[in-house]
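$ run holo --ligand "adenosine monophosphate" --emit tokens
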Amino acid sequence: MELKGPLCYVLDYDDIANYAYQTAKKIKDSEWRPDAIVGIARGGWVHARIQCDLLGVKELFSVKVSHWGVTATKDGKAKLTCPLVGDIEGKKVLVVDDITDTGESLTMAVEHIEETGKPKEVRTATLMHIAGSKFVPDYYGVEVTWAWEIWPWNFYEDLTALIMKIFEGEDIKELTTPQLKKHLREYNNIVLSDEQLSKVKAHMGYLEKIEYPQDKVWKLK
Ligand code: AMP
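-- output --
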């Protein structure tokens, strides 16, 4: 069945723990140990913190690169929106992100870190690598074909954006939960439980995207 929107996968924290472990195993098998980790905000932060634990690293720093706008929509070129925070001079540094898609974010982050931080060595790690990405990280948990991965730390943000796109795509202002379930399958191949959907609905009410509280319908504000 041809989808009306981007194919999405909903990941949970067990998936993340598993991919992070696979990534760390490859790092350990290569007999390399970073002195410091730089997490790329926002997508790489949770993974970066997990790698600190898995690799026994105490120094965790940050850099921010912005690239993708609303869920699964590219926002022009990658931009460095917050420079490197932390002292990495002379250190072996692991730069950590969630996924390499176009790879522009990691390319930009690594260039910036090498230029400004004067590290001894820089290597990169992601949970997932999309086959064909221009940037291939030194280490990654799993290689996948393109889909929009809905990370557990971005669940409400992504679902809100995807549901807003459904309202727009269908040119409607109101949906029942069963109608929304059908659309989420048709647009993004997403299947959610009633409990997950009711939490998303409460979140969208909180953000004032839809009327809140509403009993059965999802009604645009
Ligand atoms: P990129 O510069 O295209 O490699 O991607 C930059 C960032 O956008 C990634 O670190 C993710 O946080 C997010 N992103 C890009 N592509 C995807 C995807 N297919 N699924 C989930 N997040 C993505």
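-- notes --
The chain has a mean pLDDT of 95.
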